[in-house]
Amino acid sequence: MELAYYPGCSLHSTGQEFDLSVRAVFSRLGIGLTELEDWSCCGASSAHAIDPDLAVMLPARNLALAQRTGLDVLMPCAACYNRHVVASAHLAEDPALRARAEEMYGSLSGTSTQARPVLEVLCQDLPRGDLLEQVVRPLNGLPLVSYYGCLLLRPAAILQSEDPENPVLMDELLTDLGAEARRWSYASECCGGGLSLTRPPVVQRLVGRLVEAAREAGAEAIVTSCPLCQVNLEMRQSGQHLPIFYVTEVLAIALGVGAPAWWKKHLIDPAPLLRRYSLVG
Amino acid sequence: MDCAQPDESVPTKASPDESQAARAGQAVVGSALIVGGGIGGMQAALDLAEAGIKVYLAESSPAIGGTMAQLDKTFPTNDCAMCIMSPKLVDVGRHLNIEVLTNADLHSLEGDPGHFQASLIRRPRFVNLDRCTGCGECAAACPIDRPDAFNWGLSQRQAIFKLYPQAIPNAYAIEKAGMSPCREACPIHQRAQGYVALVHKGRYADAYRTILEENPFPSICGRICNHRCEEACSRGQVDAPVNIMALKRFVADWAWERRQAGETILPPRVESQPSGQRVAVVGSGPAGMTCAQDLVRQGHAVTVFEALSVPGGMMRVGIPSFRLGAEAVQREIDDILAQGVELRLNARVQDLEALFADGYSAVFLAVGAHRGVRLPIPGANLPQVHAATDFLRESRLELEDVTEPAWDPRLRGQRVMVLGGGNVAIDAAMTAVRLGAAWVGMACLEDRQQMPAHSWEIRDAEEEGIEVFPARTFHRILDRDGKVSGVACSQVVFRGFVDGRPDFDVLPGTEEEIEADWVIFAIGQHPESEWLTEALPLARGRYAQVDSETLATARPGVFAGGDMVSGTSFVVDAIAAGHRAGASIDRYLRGEAMPLAAALGSVARVELTEAQRRAGLRPMERQEGRRLPAEARRASEREFAAGLTEEQARAEAARCLECGVCSECLQCAYACKADAIDHGQTEERQMLEVGAVVLAPGLVPIDPTVRSEFGYGRYRNVVTSLEFERMLSASGPWGGEVTRPSDGKHPERVAWIQCVGSRETCGGQDYCSSICCMYATKEAIIAREHDAHIEPTIFYLDIRSHGKGFEEYIERAGSEQGVRYVRSMVSSVKENPATGDLRLAYATYGPEGRPQPREESFDMVVLSVGLRPSPAVRAMLDRLEIEVDPNGFPRGAAGTGRTSRPGVFVAGSLAEPKDIPETVVEAGCAAAMASEILAAARGTRTREIVFPDERDLSQEAPRVGVFVCHCGINIGGVVDVPDVVEAAAQLPDVVYAERNLYTCSQDTQEKIARVIQEQRLNRVVVASCTPRTHEPLFQDTLRQAGLNPGLFEMANIREQDSWVHRGHPELATRKAKQLVAMAVTKARGLEPIRRGSVPVEPAALVIGGGLAGMTAARSVAEQGFRVVLVERERQLGGHLRQAKPAARGIDPAQLLAEAVGAVTSHPRIECHLEASIEEIGGYVGQFRTRLRLADGAECEIEHGAIVVASGAQAVETCDYGYGSLPGVITQQALDGLLAGDALPEAEVESLRQGVVMIQCVGSRQPERPYCSRVCCTQALQNAVLLKAQDATIPVTVLYRDLRTYGFREAIYRQARSLGVRFLQYSEHAPPEIAQGEGSLQVRLRVQPENAAVELPAGRVVLSTGIDPNPDNGRLSRMLKVPLTREGFFLEAHAKLRPVDFAAEGIFVCGLAHSPRSIEESMEQARAAAVRVVGLLSKATLLSTPIVATVNPRLCSACGICVDVCPFGARQLNLERGCAEVIEVLCQGCGACISACPNKASQQRGFAFRELGQMVEEAIR
Lengths: 281, 1516
Description:
Distance between the termini of chain B: 72 Å
Oligomer: heterodimer
Mean pLDDT of chain A: 91
Largest sheet of chain B: 5 strands, parallel
Number of strands of chain A: 8
CATH topology of the largest domain in chain A: Rossmann fold
Strand order of the largest sheet of chain B: 5-2-1-31-44
Low-confidence stretches of chain A: none
């Protein structure tokens, strides 16, 4: 399998460990990733709030680039993924908008290139048996909760998510990898990421509630698939020290790929937890 | 004006629904079809049947009762739903002119009103209704557990089930999805799912019996079958198929062990009558022996001729013992012989005709295919070359030490080559291994994938060291000195067989020689049939030619089957042939036509989706029997595969997915003593001729997962309101104990969330479901009654308690019964995974009106789900081409029940979501509309039972017959019934006593009638179950036999004895004897009961000429009866005369004109205006009413029934400055303004300053506590009209709760979208109005924020509500019927008798009953009309048999009985100086009997003397 790759700004900065673990895992699983040449920011954090036109045009440029590769494009960042899919929907239903975008960036039609999130590729495209064959280190019952946040699932109609209130993909993957996916009701609650800088007290309350709920569920770490959530959850929890993983990091441990080098990027060191569960040498 | 009768000869004016059929002169059919057996359908059925229309009541489930049967209590009276509905169920079930059709769907409808042809699909019940007595022994025997849908899956039931305990018909039904794929795949259609299910339950003997139904060789098929069942098994889609074959072996071996230990595990077989015919079966293989068994069971004498010295055919000499031990074959052959089959060994038959000459009437040839085939290649005839059949036969016989050792020494240490790639080749190769061969190989044309042997067989062979050479052709067998030295072969590409010949290419240069000392051909075999060439035509010179259906050969009386017809096949195929031959020969011998094979039913294929697999089906390991390791196998001829252990078998059986639901294991049929089970039933069409159709199929709950954020299905303690009803119900799965599903704890904090799926524009339904506010409150109250620790909280948007008595109910719930109401939309529910507790997030407002998010924890959450039409109902409406709205409800004319299709009416919640009384009213309305169409045919399709004349007993001494019931094992399993019969026979005057399996069954009724005549019985006692359900049945039997029904007495030895004293059979028997003795004592003194009767005057009096009165009058008249309509005013029309704008499809002005026109011109309606009622006398059927007419004259009319439609009036208020501030008007005044074409310009000016509507003016307050129901809709209609006239008019509605129930919600939504503002106020702080400069100023504190708001208003519009008619008091006294505290008329029962009074013959409708809308008034008027017609269409009315009587000598005329009688059936006769009973009104309740201080009153059938004697008998 071959995919184009759009890391977005986060994976080049605060979410480097996401980038590194995505590349390591996909390489082990035999999925080729080619980074889009000359990609640009999708405007996720602010464009949609201040300029509806820009909010579509920024992703449109990347979509045009992706069209030329003829490949689906992997977008690990939930915010980037969300913006690109929403922009595609706008472009599809507004011919004038689309004409303008094509005038600027070139053709948007001709292929069926799609933005793809990591979880969907791992859980739906790849036969589970093939993936599990590569597991060298089952996760020894590590108690985790799956956390999706808002942007991966909503708006459900546009993102075509089955039930944003009850996502199951990550739980199934983690269970199959040998972890213990704990029952909880907060998998798609908001972490307040969008207000992280402007309204810290609100965010602290939201993050605090999530971390508390994860503890209540008996989890020793939260697994996410969004760089904004990950940073926010690590940064805004107070005195709890609950590690926050990317799903690809957990998968990397199971597949025995990548070095613990990227863990130093974590604000909350997951190494002690992994040692307790004999998941690190 | 006199009171002359209208001219009867004037023809009826055609109503809009009157049929084309009628106009064309075609006779109208006097029957109606009602679809749906819920409370609405039942009411419509009863109304129509009482009105002389034959009714077919089609219900899609196995029993009537509908949703109401599932409810616990009902609001606002907190009556038990089942208790109040049960009598209706019985009435419907027993009604002579209602035919209940269960499992029935209306498929299509042809024709016109008055003359429809309805086509019904009757889905099979698999239980014969005429025979089933509802005893339940079948369910006790059924191994299939299913979620009980009646209990919303909270409990389990069996695949054979009764819908609920009180179900009518009182009979079981079987749930089937079709034949399971395993059964379908099997040539003999083994009931695999059946015995697998029984193994799962540990019922091995039952499993054995189920297997033996089709398979006389379970031990054999449990070992060596090619088990096509497993290939078809749905479990294979999840992980691996169920190991069905191993389960069969487990059962067969278990059974064999038990039988060897001397246990009897099968019931004795019923011997059949000898037919006197003899049949010869040639060959004792599986085909022959199966056929022999089948024939001997049919009573034929069967001789089996076997050429060999051992029976069993290929099972014995073709399959090596290490696969199938001789013992396993012998025991099953012995079983067949034990049934009377004669076996002759060493008896080779050579002459077919000789058999006939010996007296055999038929011959079955099943000699198998025992001759091996050799390839015609060089060396094929060398002495060391053998055919596999010979080799296996000889070696098998040798290993069993039956004959001389033949092979052993020569094979030891030799190299053996087997040519062939099938099962036989494998068997031959493995036999060679066991005979000591040094090396064994096998070679075949096919490559590995193509080899006919199963892959697991090849695996076994290779494990044992056998070398496989696939894709080879053999050129020759090499010899050295006349002895085999090897095989020369080449590699090939094999493409299969073309016309029986192999098609392959030899790969050049691949020739090789394989060294061997022995060669065994295993490439095919054929029958030895040379002896038949003269007698029969043979295919390819060898195979018997037969008819494929009957297996008959060309020679009459000769049949053939098995391998000799089909060529080499599997044991199970031979068994199938044996069965087929057995059936054909039996029919041949009986001289019956040869039937075609019965068609199989549909197959239940289970398609497992990814999601299903994820949801519930975790992989479970397939259990395999232990097998000897290859090394040990090589040295032993013993069976190398062991069976499953019991533990393994149970685990394996648990893997079954139960594809067919019912497993067709037949255990129910074995258990049923009444022989009621019929698994052969199929779907049928039923055509009905009907004149009209009423659709009342009800609604289903909206899927609660449309609000996924509430976690239904994920959080264990989130349940739906309907599930909660079952939890509350004493007859529900938890016996009424409210516990949490997650941990069984008693919940304390319970939250209800309203509007789940209702009033939603995304996901759910956009209308209001009307009933949820009330049922949630009821559930909260009842939950607290069950457990005082429960603290209920109801989260709601608007409380909609718009029905009669509802507002007070809610008020009391909040103020007295501890129900907490929180007005807030719950945004999410979260579960604490450790405790199962639930956190609800919602918004409240802080002190400054600032919104504050809140979280609150609850133990349990109940989702108040709304209602919608089911997909099945939507499909039906499509088929009937009835127009529906976007939500799937039929479009129709309000107030009439009409749909878009003339002659088809809708009633109940399918018309619009509604509660039970509204449903009952609407059912009556639909019945009235149908009855109007069918008026001409009234009584043409109904029937009456004519009983023989009653015997004169005056000269007879008592002769008592006692019939004691076993009720299957219900009574007989506890009480010693024969002992009770013996004791009964000793009682005085008892001349006859006997016992019956089911005394209620049809054949027993006939028997009782016969015995009554033969024994000249004149008193009958039945000791069985409850008189509530069964007494009328037995009384009818007495009447059939010419006895008065009063001469019957019942002793309840089931509910009051065997059921409650299960653990004490001896004491229960003693009690049964006592109960019987008491009944006999009473019976001896019984006298015939004569029922009083009154003739019916076929006319009705309608009081009130408003819309309700006019509608009722017109409907009664249309239905063919005379009506006298009395109106106090100068004009007809009542409130409808006030100008009102048209809205929601109703134009009041047009309605008025139409109604007045119809009433005044109708030949059967006599109208009196400006008339008053002076006196009402008489009683039902015989009322006499004195009227004062407009001219002051008086006249008296006679009539059989009365309709009270006296209306109500608008509340007069002086609140909010009404009357003093000129800008303050009423909603009625605004109606008047808006009814015109355009508003006056001046008015518009003032409206533009702002319109503020104030709701609940005078309603929902201490002095007038009820909700006036119509004001919210009226206000919103006007708000919308204002906005339509001029969008700039600012309209604000000040409300407490907005009550746009049902589809009225659309107006609320429309108003909001048009910019109408809605502000909520508190009853404690009503708005204040002041005159400002140029306009009014309205000040209020808006809730829930409590924010101060000031609004300018040109007009303040007051919604003032409805007051009862002040004349109601006088009228109620004249009618002797009660009023509510508020002054509306009080109906007989709030739920089920909404238009009746307790006093017979008087009915109520319209605003006299309670506040209601135009269409609701019309519906209620029609409902009253059809009740009137039900009464008037009878020539006479009979009193109930059990009535009170008065002994005038003891009566002191104190009048206490008159006061206590709730039915007005008592009066004082001052002339005679004693009280009297009006028998036709008396309901036999007994209140007067217990009230009478002088014992002057007695109850017929319950005289003091009789009861006293019973008590004495009891304490003797």
